[in-house]
Amino acid sequence: MEESALKENSSVATDEEHDLNHGSMDSNLEIAQEEEQVRGILQVVSSTGNFWHNWDKLKSMLSFQLKLVLSEYPEAKMTTDQQNASLGETYSDLVKRLDEELHSFNEGPPFTLQRICEILLTARSIYPNLSKLALALEKNLLVTSTLTVCTNPYPQMMPNPEPEKASEEAQPQSNPIQNGVEPVVGDRDEIMTEVEEADIEDMTIDMDAFQEMVGSSEANSTVAGNS
After folding, report:
1. Region Disordered: what ranges (predicted)?
2. What is the pLDDT of residues 46-70, one digit of tens each?
């Protein structure tokens, strides 16, 4: 009886552990998908300088990306004393302050929205430490002018063509007949020979002119010496 009860309890514990692991995997997948979606939208804003989404929704995306980027810096894992020494404030106070500055825009995003998106997308490659990143973000958040939502169609991010297709499309353009240019009659080697011979003739003429100039200079020098 006891052995059966132990096996049953072990089975229940295993199922619970499996459910927890499965739930954790689902949660991580959802976070990864959300990160990808947010980055895609911010990339459009970064490349166009315009925005199409509801400002409150876009603001939430910016806040999400802001906290994510800040958390990737080593200062986020320092002790409170180390954070105060490095940042002049605690990490949590820094995040709260920047997030509040972002949420202070009620009517629309700051006119520096494009630059803010650029910073949040490439922060680690531009700013070596958190204090410099925070300074750049604060500079772009301490403005008063705002943007209005764009009424143009939302841009479609077209994928790059496959190399094979791109090569096939490029070939007709290189055809001289399709471009309206008549092909040059004659063998390519013959044409190159004519060009080389023309260069040699020009060089011969130049050498003759040079020798005449040298001869004239020497004659003038001799006359000057005799006088």
Report:
1. 1-22, 154-187
2. 999 999 999 999 999 999 999 999 9
